[in-house]
Amino acid sequence: MNSHFQVLLKWLGAVCTLLLAISLLPLAQATVYDAELPEGLMHGPDLCAHAACKDVMPQATRFSQRMGSPQYVQAFGRAAGAAANSAEQVIGYVFLSTDVVDIPAYSGKPVITLIGMDTKGIITGVRVLKHSEPILLAGIPEKALLDFIGQYIGQRGDAKLEIGRGGDGSVGLDAISGATVTAIAENQVISRSAYEIGRQVGIFTTAARPPARFTAIDERLNWRKLQDEGAIGRLVIPAAEVGVDPADGDYIDVYFGYLNTPTIGKSVLGEQGYQRLMQDLKPDEHAIFLIARGQTSFKGSGFVRGGIYDRLQVRQDPQSFTFRDTDYLNLYHVEPADVPQFKESAIFIIRSAGFNPAWPWTLNILANKRDANGVKSFARYDQAYWLPERYLEGGHPVVVTAKPAWQLIWQGQWWQITVFVLLLAATALLYSQRDRLVRASTRRHKPWISRPRLAIWLISVGFVGFYLKAQPSITQVMTWVHSLLHQWRWELFLSDPFIFLSWWFIIITVLVWGRGFFCGWLCPFGSLQHLMLKLGAVIGLKRYQGLLPKRWHDRLKWVKYGVFFALLAVSLVSMETAEHLAEIEPFKTTFLVGVWNRSWPFWIFIGGILLLSLFSERPYCKYICPLGAGLALPGRFRLFGLKRKAECSTCHACAAGCGSHAIDSAGRIDQTECMLCLDCMVMYYDDHACPPLVQERKRRSNAGQALTRIGADGYFVSLDSLRNSLHESQRPARPQQGGDGA
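^ thats the sequence. predicted structure below, dont judge the formating
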């Protein structure tokens, strides 16, 4: 029997090697995955010299250079039905998504998309130029993304486009099966880009914003009070965020605020400074102040007279406002005594009737960011500002802002999230009562454990795995490591609520109970393997079921740790290669993509694991799973382990029945390998199964002594301690001495 298992494991290893080799093939087939885009396309004046603008605007004969804010290009051509010699006219607009919005997809990076829209607001074409979604390489072809974006052609740029069924005036779009988060992010990219450009060029109009009217409040506040009420904003860019030495302090630390209102203006500038400023301002002009410290200047090192302060911008949707030298005023003195130290200060004037201080706006600073490889790029950082409502007549107007993609996902799946949280909570509550459950069980009859756990396995496989596709994976661990090393974005992890909740649950329970709670009770693929073992017993294979010899297990269990560290190391060099090698996890094929959507090596791989599972308990979990290895390491620091007795060092009863091979010859439990099935804990209290208890029970029965209850230490409570406690309870209570001597 043992030789059969050795042959099966060798065969499984060969399949793994074949699978990994084949999984690398899509790297050569990818066309837009992490494509290298020229700098001119991303930031140059002539977008269409570097991008195939005609692909998204087929009727155009020529294109302008970039214009506007956010930027777009005009497409020129002849109107449909016009004579060949008729004059060219503007027939539409082409724009790059990253010029308009910066919405990360599941990889944490945006899908860079070229979009065309005619003068009526109809989307004429969409083309993905670059994406960083590994799932669209390994498992889901890029064609799925191309088919998805094809649904936008012919739709209005201001239409309410939603993933899923339409309704309430919305247009429903088919998602990308297995990559829903990517689809939702790309939907926002295309929809918001088209709407912003359409609104800028006048295709889509919005209701006029009533002018701001200030209240008559005129107070003198110190710096702390101004900050507390939100009259002064603060934007801090840490040095590590842009790849410079943190020893010299923050990259930049900027305080800013709006000066036209009397309280803020006089508190910051003083009475005379405020009066001089207001005398110089025209009716539609607005003043903001900035003071800053740090390693760089908000003015920019390359500023020349007549030029633009290219690092600084104010944005109030849909417009952006930049500043020239004529918009700059010196700020020589800041009035409050408690103002923080600063290195530079300035007043900038917004000269536009389009700016409305009653509505929120953001201060944007463009920084030179250096990544881990020393490559420089531009990164935009912003901080929202909204004038405190007590300075506005009628308070703040009602502002409807687009919700982030992750919030829409959570709201759209509220009932699934509720059920999922209840499953996690119920399982944790059940396991927390393990001492009661094992005491109510025997080695031959343990319904209070086996039945709930079987139900949890079924729900985990069916609901969590196949329906929610919420199988945690080593790829998420690699993503976290990269985020910690480069840039942490909560939005990336919040975009999949079930994975987000799963990982917080895993982190907590691993530190409390160890790896075995998740792996043994809730992991969808682990549960599927155990259900296959149960199926094998039902269909008559029980007599063939068994385990590898302990000596083989103790060697092979280290393989999964090698896989874990190898994947982690490769991910630091090439994340896409690591994503392909992570196909050694069968989770994506089983739950996310579906076996029927993969090629034959994946079928053999999954089939081999499930075939082995008919004969042996959780073979993949024991010997290959990198996720299990990753969870086992912090699990060494768990708070609670399983109980042991002194006799366990010589008794092998529990070890003989341990399906995880987690108990050694000295009776010690390897908690990193234990799946917390609780079989050994049932025996711990079972006086018909645990040899020390069996001997004590027989000794007492032969001596005619009573059988007492079994204590928490796993032994019968001694008769002497029972007699003493009985005598104590029967001893009459001493009369209390009264205060009056009675």
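DSSP finds 29 helices and 16 strands in the chain.
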